UniProtKB/TrEMBL annotation:
It is an enzyme of class 2 (transferase). Its EC number is 2.7.1.49, 2.7.4.7. This is Bifunctional hydroxymethylpyrimidine kinase/phosphomethylpyrimidine kinase. CDD domains: HMPP_kinase. Catalyzes the phosphorylation of hydroxymethylpyrimidine phosphate (HMP-P) to HMP-PP, and of HMP to HMP-P.
Length: 288
């Protein structure tokens, strides 16, 4: 049996298992990637919300990162909740030293349940210190607006403008997720990828579900896992969308918890076997 590629997630723990480290590790496992982790914070969290946050000391987070980098040589790294500007700065220093390969940055600021997951100053340190070293940045429309100091995109064109504007902070590619467009046939979900070779718009029908806690973490960690497996940025984004859509469809009828339930990370192993005609890019010019 071949040795699996390794991916490292630097993220917070979600005790409810829907987002954060728990979503990342189950997603890595579903994609045949060995998952290593550096826990940045322990959140007291369930499907109804975030009830408390206990930050892990910066030195302890760095020690976890160091020993994983030394021993396991990850092929890709995903960064989620950092929570504090001093931790963003510390992780950015490791990235600036060129030690975080194929770095996927999910700029986690607020949970689906509406709780702040980032203190003042995190937006500025992400933008100025971490983003320049990222291979791919995966903000949703609200996070993109916060990073740009503007209001969330209201159209696909504005979403594409925001993705392009975020590229100016120095990352190789940016995908702004979570746009919605109403058509005569219903609502579509739109993600816009901008990179060195142009802009690609992905549009697919919305999947009706209350179980969407953790979509952003699952998307970003799936993209990191596909990059670790050698996919191009465009193909990693396309496949990550496919995985999230499969997870949303599978869990749509489930009832887990009394709030917004988690997507079905555990049922994503065979999603590649099922071609998904609803997941295709709308325009060409893919970043490589
Ligand atoms: N109801 C849905 N139907 C189809 N696709 C969805 C739905 N909800 C989210 N997605 C997709 O999930 C992926 C993650 O994007 P999303 O914008 O939800 O991240 P996020 O807001 O950061 O998530 P989180 O809730 O974890 O913060 C994107 O590809 C997005 O299009
Ligand atoms: C530890 C942690 N990391 C990230 C999120 C964001 O995910 P969501 O927006 O789905 O709540 C979260 N809720 N908790």
């Amino acid at each position: 049996m071949n040795t699996p590629p390794v991916a490292l997630t630097i993220a917070g723990s979600d005790s409810g298992g829907g987002a954060g480290i728990q979503a990342d590790l189950t997603t890595f496992a579903a994609l045949g990637v060995h998952g290593a982790s550096a826990v940045t914070a322990i959140t007291v969290q369930d499907t109804t919300g975030v009830h408390d946050i206990h930050p892990v000391p910066v030195g302890v987070v760095l020690a976890q990162i160091e020993c994983v980098l030394r021993d396991l040589a990850p092929a890709a790294v995903k960064v989620g909740m950092l929570g504090r500007p001093e931790l963003s700065e510390a992780v950015a220093r490791v990235a600036a030293a060129g030690r975080l390969p194929r770095l996927v940055v999910d700029p986690v600021l607020v949970s689906t349940s509406g709780h702040s997951l980032a203190a003042d100053g995190v937006v500025a340190t992400l933008r100025e210190q971490l983003l320049p070293h990222a291979h791919l940045v995966t903000p949703n429309t609200d996070e993109a607006a916060a990073l740009l100091g503007t209001v969330p995109a209201r159209s696909v064109d504005e979403q594409a403008d925001h993705a392009g504007a975020l590229l100016a902070f120095g990352s190789r590619a940016v995908v702004v997720t979570g746009g919605t467009v109403r058509t005569p046939d219903g609502t579509e979900r739109v993600d816009v990828l901008a990179g060195p070779a142009g802009t690609v718009v992905f549009r697919s029908p919305e999947i009706a579900t209350d179980n969407d806690h953790g979509t952003g973490c699952t998307f970003a960690s799936a993209a990191a896992a596909f990059l670790a497996r050698g996919h191009t940025t465009h193909d990693a984004v396309l496949s990550a969308r496919g995985l999230v859509r499969h997870a949303l469809r599978t869990s749509a009828p489930w009832r887990l918890g009394s709030g917004r339930g988690p997507v079905a990370h555990t049922r994503t192993t065979c999603f590649e076997a099922t071609p998904d005609p609803t997941n295709a890019p709308h325009s060409q010019g893919a970043p490589r």
